[in-house]
Every structure is written in structure tokens, then in C-alpha cells.
Amino acid sequence: MKDQELSLYRALLDNLQDGICIYNETGDFVYVNNAIVNIRGIPRQQYLTMNVHDLYQTRYINICIFDMVLERQGEVTALQRYSSRGKVVRTRLCTGSPIFDSDGSV
Questions:
Q1: What is the pTM of this model?
Q2: What pLDDT does residue 16 have?
Q3: In this structure, are residues 97 and 75 in contact, taking their beta carbons and an 8 Å threshold?
């Protein structure tokens, strides 16, 4: 993929109002868009040093959609609550969709 195409895709994702997170096969954040940074208040650079399980283990989120997607090997939609300082801040509808490679691995 050309740098120009990659820049275009990032610009598209960053201008969506819906929060988008992309993880690798172990749950490490590899991309977050502007909306998720604004929704959760976690800086982009901090996300890129984290794994989705960091949020789950610290009870920042109540369910891990990533794990559900891996278990089902398919799309999952569920209500997820996230907290800050022990208080529920928001409940939202989340969808996780796996991307499979040519070998069928996530």
C-alpha cells in the first residue's frame, strides 16, 4: 500500500464520530482514531503502548469484546460499560470484527 493511500485511510478513520480501535492478534493496540481518544480521554500514544487486557484487568471496561471475537471467530456486538475512578462513565454498543489472513488466522 502506498503512503498516500495509507494517509487517506487514516484520515477517513480519524474523521469518523465512532470510536475505532485496531488490535493485533494478541490484543495490542496498533491504531486508535480521534473519536476513541476523545471518548475515553486516553492519549493516542498511551494506547499504542497498551493491550486491550490492560483496560479489562483494571476494570476500565467490564467485558472484553476482543476475547469474545477470538472465542467465536466471528463478529460480536455487545453492550460495554467503561469506568473512570470507579464510576461508570458510559455504556455503549460495541462491535468487534475479526480480520482473517489467507491461512484463516486472526
A1: 0.87
A2: 96
A3: yes
